[in-house]
């Protein structure tokens, strides 16, 4: 299985960083010009971006990627997977939150990925790693 891991410290309490990264709309800032839109709410009315929610990613009217939130443990962990994509054999995203102190949080973002086409996975993961590092740097400046 191919995987990447990115670690980033945020100068904010874990609750603040978790709330930021648990909202689908946040990823519009982090990964611009990629657009992220929630297309299905979770069953929890208090947290529409929670477990069972689905977001679409792409540009303009073309948003071919769908991700479903599969686990959300407040202030600790978020997991999601790509759904309904014939080009992806396996994709699991895991975002973990660890307080360093009362005003600093370490975020560890792990992505496991396997494309159906050979040799594509490493290329996709390299692009994702670069985009996530840049996106997290942008977000870290907002908190």
UniProtKB/TrEMBL annotation:
Gene3D superfamilies given for it?
Answer: 3.30.530.20
Query: Per UniProt, what is one Pfam family of this protein?
Result: Polyketide_cyc2
Per its UniProt entry, which superkingdom is the organism in? Bacteria
- Coiled-coil regions in this chain? none
Q: Which InterPro entries match?
A: Polyketide_cyclase/dehydratase, START-like_dom_sf
Which SUPFAM superfamilies does the entry link to? Bet v1-like
The molecule here is called: Polyketide cyclase
């Amino acid at each position: 299985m191919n995987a990447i891991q990115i670690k980033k410290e945020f100068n904010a309490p874990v609750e603040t960083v978790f709330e930021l990264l648990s909202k689908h709309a946040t990823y519009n800032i982090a990964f611009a010009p990629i657009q992220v839109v929630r297309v299905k709410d979770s069953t929890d009315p208090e947290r529409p971006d929670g477990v069972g929610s689905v977001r679409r990613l792409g540009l303009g009217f073309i948003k071919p990627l769908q991700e479903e939130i599969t686990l959300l443990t407040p202030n600790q962990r978020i997991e999601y997977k790509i759904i309904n994509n014939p080009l992806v054999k396996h994709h699991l995203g895991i975002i973990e939150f660890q307080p360093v102190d009362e005003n600093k949080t370490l975020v560890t973002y792990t992505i496991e990925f396997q494309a159906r086409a050979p040799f594509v996975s490493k290329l996709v993961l390299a692009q994702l790693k670069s985009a996530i590092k840049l996106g997290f740097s942008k977000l870290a400046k907002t908190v």
